[in-house]
Request: fold
Amino acid sequence: MRRSKKNSKAKSNQKPVSRAAAKRTLLRPGRFVARNTEKGPMRIGIVAVQGDFAAHAAMLRRLGADSVEVRTVSDLEGCEGIILPGGESTTQLQFLREEGLFDAIRQFASHGGPVFGTCAGAILLATKVKNPPQESLGLLDMTVLRNGYGRQLASDVFFERTKLKKDPLEMVFIRGPIIEETGKGISILATHEGKAALVEKGNILAATFHPELTDDPTVHEHFLDMAAKGAAQAASAS
Ligand code: GLN
Reply:
């Protein structure tokens, strides 16, 4: 069965819903999983406060997935994955806090919902942030050093080997963080200058670079695969 038109369309102008009501109705365990059993494009929420969220949307569109710009908790309704884009992590953190999205995203992930962070998004996912220390969602056991590669003003582009494909992957770094340490069970899918640059554990994926700013869909494809596999597992267990 295909999704209804209403559900497969990206929407950015949601009616305001009270935070408490949104929490009651949207964040029940398994809600996003149940929707995953339907056929039709996956629906991924992209936190759209500032930064390069539009580039993520374009990449998802290319891969046949739908995206929703997320600015309020109610925008998360029906999302089967969440992307935290690059930008300025301090600004994004403040916004997530103000909108109640900080807790909502943590709750989504704790129910197995897939979350992918790029650059500032990776900083928000870490358990420990340095330079300067900053609060974070703490969804991936790693220590990150903000602006760790120096204060690159323009982008630096590198090609590095990954575990995702045979050919090297194009990596665009823009004032990216360095992953200084990773905890137990974190898989390192790619490195740059000897430091982990693409890491995952369970339903959480983080890149210190910007795959959305290249023409290569490998990392987004991997995220959609993670999301689909997680949903299939949850569906067979229920
Ligand atoms: N340096 C930024 C931060 O610390 C991240 C840069 C980026 O996302 N391109 O938030």
Notes: The helical segments are 5-8, 19-26, 31-36, 53-62, 89-99, 101-110, 120-125, 218-237.
